[in-house]
């Protein structure tokens, strides 16, 4: 991606000028736009060079680039940390196995990971895709607190696949898990620091004769 043209690099006669708060100033000569930028101690940045006339905005370009880089870095970190887990189940899954699979889907989503839920069709089950859609819909409803359907059920040969996305990003889920662990350790430490009851306090007073 090419760098945006700023200030003196903008060599068109006129621009559609946008103010620092996003307000439209109108079509102005580039010389006037540069003067307004200098007066406001801001940069003139070409944001839509293909428009007629090109669109330019008054902004703090250094701050804009810093924030854009931080957002890109955070996006890369979340993408790198996010893992796609797989859960496989049969169309005729029994209640106990279904609950086990559901808990695993919840655990993965709560941890910030995507989950691909796969139903395997056997034999003539392939002629009943509506049953697979119903089962996957049930799973999506049961774990809705932890994630949402990114890719709706689709048949792929003998399999039907649905992809779920977590509500929380991986970094957020990991931070919350670390906090829970830290809180639990502090609570355990506080319990360990409590003084034990003395033998005299613990003894049940008897009747004196």
List the defining traits of the structure above:
Ubiquitin-like (UB roll), Translation Initiation Factor IF3, 209 residues, four-stranded mixed sheet, 6 helices, single chain, alpha/beta, disordered C terminus
**SSE pattern:** EEHEEHEHEHEEHH
Number of strands: 8
* CATH topology-level fold name of one domain: Translation Initiation Factor IF3
Please mark out the parts with pLDDT under 50 across 5 or more consecutive residues, or reply none.
Answer: 202-209
Estimate what percentage of residues fall within beta strands. 25-35%
Radius of gyration: 30 Å
Distance between the termini: 96 Å
Shape: elongated
Regarding CATH, which class of one domain? Alpha Beta
Kindly report the name of the CATH homologous superfamily of one domain: Translation initiation factor 3 (IF-3), C-terminal domain
Q: Give the CATH architecture of one domain.
A: 2-Layer Sandwich
Describe the SSE topology.
Elements: E1 14-18, E2 24-29, H1 30-39, E3 43-48, E4 55-59, H2 61-81, E5 84-90, H3 95-110, E6 114-120, H4 129-142, E7 147-156, E8 159-166, H5 170-193, H6 199-202
Parallel strand pairs: 1-4, 5-6
Antiparallel strand pairs: 1-2, 3-4, 6-8, 7-8
Task: Walk me through the structure.
With 209 residues, this protein is of the alpha/beta class. Among the domains are: 7-61, Ubiquitin-like (UB roll) (Roll), CATH 3.10.20.80; 81-166, Translation initiation factor 3 (IF-3), C-terminal domain (Translation Initiation Factor IF3). Helix content is 43%, strand content 26%. The protein contains 6 helices and 8 strands, in the order ββαββαβαβαββαα. The strands form 2 sheets. A 4-stranded mixed sheet has the order 2-1-4-3. Strands 5-6-8-7 form a 4-stranded mixed sheet, covered by helices on one side. A hairpin with a 2-residue loop joins strand 7 (147-156) and strand 8. The protein is elongated, with a radius of gyration of 30 Å. The N and C termini lie far apart (96 Å).
